[in-house]
Amino acid sequence: MTDKQDLQIAIGKRVKELRESKNIAQQDLAAACNFEKSNMARLEAGNTNATIYTLKIIAKNLKVELVDLVKDL
Amino acid sequence: MTDKQDLQIAIGKRVKELRESKNIAQQDLAAACNFEKSNMARLEAGNTNATIYTLKIIAKNLKVELVDLVKDL
DNA sequence: AGTATTTTTATCATTTATGATAACTAGCCA
DNA sequence: TGGCTAGTTATCATAAATGATAAAAATACT
């Protein structure tokens, strides 16, 4: 497992946890972000090294701060 | 100016400020990160929407936390 | 002045994030 | 059983991040 993969997986988990804690469906978050639900699944699964702007959009729609997505990572 | 550009520029400034505060030459930081100096300049100028892993590498070599690069953004 | 160092800019190639669509799985319920 | 919802996985196209090189511009130093 590489550092990069570890980071991707950690961020995917963070997004998923925050999303579920707010009872938002994956497809609803995706729609709010103007992403396809498949691509949100891909990110939550840790299969993409997202850009900072993508993370900012997700943070905004989760109503959290960008730092909350990368804290302790 | 778009949200995306604003974010890129803010992060570029953040990297540059942290780097200069530690008296590290741009090319030295680039070398430590295994980036070309030209690409580090591009990022500091706000011309790229960096991936989270790229930012993590930069944070590591600046000896700061990843959150320090995205705080308040 | 000049010279070296550092930074910036431009450009092209390659890799990869993202966009987009479809098919599949699992769970739930009428 | 069938349909419905939520999530997953695979795949292809496109846009953009990154790799890489060269040259110009700025900065510092003697």
Class derived from helix and strand content of chain A: mainly alpha
Biggest pleated-sheet summary of chain A = none
CATH topology of chain A: 434 Repressor (Amino-terminal Domain)
Average pLDDT value of chain A? 97
CATH class of chain A: Mainly Alpha
- Total domains of chain A, how many? 1
CATH superfamily of chain A: lambda repressor-like DNA-binding domains
Q: Give me the CATH architecture of chain A, please.
A: Orthogonal Bundle
Instruction: Tell me the series of helices and strands of chain A, N- to C-terminal.
Output: HHHHH
Oligomer: homodimer
Total helical elements of chain A: 5
Helix content of chain A: 55-70%
Computed CA radius of gyration of chain A, to the nearest angstrom: 11 Å
Textual characterization of the structure:
The structure is a homodimer of 73-residue chains. Chain A starts with a helix and ends with a helix. The model of chain A has no long low-confidence stretch (mean pLDDT 97). Chain A has a single domain, classed as lambda repressor-like DNA-binding domains (434 Repressor (Amino-terminal Domain)). The longest helix of chain A is centred in the first third of the chain and has 19 residues, at 3-21. Chain A has helices at residues 3-21, 26-33, 37-44, 52-62, 66-70. By secondary structure, chain A is an all-alpha fold. The radius of gyration of chain A is 11 Å and the shape is globular. In chain A, helix 2 (26-33) packs across helix 3 (37-44) and helix 2 (26-33) packs across helix 4 (52-62). Chain A has 5 helices and no strands. The interface between A and B is medium-sized, with 18 and 18 residues. The structure holds a DNA duplex (30 and 30 nucleotides).
